[in-house]
């Protein structure tokens, strides 16, 4: 019995290292973004490892962005807190991926509606795309409300397109 317990204890770090290696390979793909099925095929512990990679400033920016996006497929309170914080205080592509992940995992949220008013045009556009994918009256209302105050022509065009496509 002691031998089995010791064997499992020693295997833990090896299993974690193997999962880390598999995730790193998946996140490094250049030809296409990894799919939900590819992440799920890696088995248990993917969510915690994705969160660790997304939070690690040493993770390559492209891999971190993909890890952030994939967190939407693993909704947990820890991931939601991280994504909401990244959306509010992150930088560039991380914020855009956080918007998409939040919409994927949790649907409409006030944090997404606030991002519609951010000074970053690319974030506003990513948030519009994320909200437009939701079948939610709140998301539709948030997009509709933004029409009245949006000043950027490209963002206005995307809002109009999103609302037209989402119309019944």
Write a structural description:
By secondary structure, the protein is mostly helical. It has a single domain (34-165), classed as Leucine-rich Repeat Variant (Alpha Horseshoe). 72% of the residues lie in helices and 0% in strands. The termini are far apart. Mean pLDDT is 88; it is low at 1-11.
Secondary structure: elements and pairs:
Elements: H1 2-27, H2 36-40, H3 46-55, H4 61-70, H5 77-89, H6 92-106, H7 110-115, H8 121-132, H9 137-147, H10 153-165
- Global morphology: elongated
Question: Would you give the CATH topology?
Answer: Leucine-rich Repeat Variant
H and E order? HHHHHHHHHH
**First CA to last CA: what distance?**
63 Å
Summed over residues and divided by their number, the pLDDT gives a mean of 88
In the CATH hierarchy, what is the superfamily?
Leucine-rich Repeat Variant
SS-derived structural category: mainly alpha
């Amino acid at each position: 019995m002691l031998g089995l317990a010791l064997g499992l204890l020693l295997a833990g770090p090896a299993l974690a290292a193997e999962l880390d290696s598999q995730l790193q390979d998946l996140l490094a793909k250049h030809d296409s973004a990894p799919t939900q099925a590819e992440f799920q095929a890696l088995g248990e512990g993917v969510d915690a490892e994705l969160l660790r990679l997304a939070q690690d400033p040493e993770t390559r920016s492209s891999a971190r962005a993909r890890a952030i996006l994939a967190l939407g497929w693993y909704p947990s309170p820890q991931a939601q807190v991280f994504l909401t914080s990244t959306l509010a205080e992150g930088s560039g592509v991380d914020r855009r991926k956080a918007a998409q992940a939040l919409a994927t995992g949790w649907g409409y949220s006030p944090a997404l509606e606030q991002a519609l008013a951010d000074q970053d045009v690319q974030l506003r556009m990513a948030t519009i795309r994320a909200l437009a994918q939701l079948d939610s009256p709140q998301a539709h209302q948030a997009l509709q409300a933004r029409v009245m105050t949006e000043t950027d022509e490209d963002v206005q065009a995307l809002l109009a397109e999103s609302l037209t496509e989402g119309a019944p």
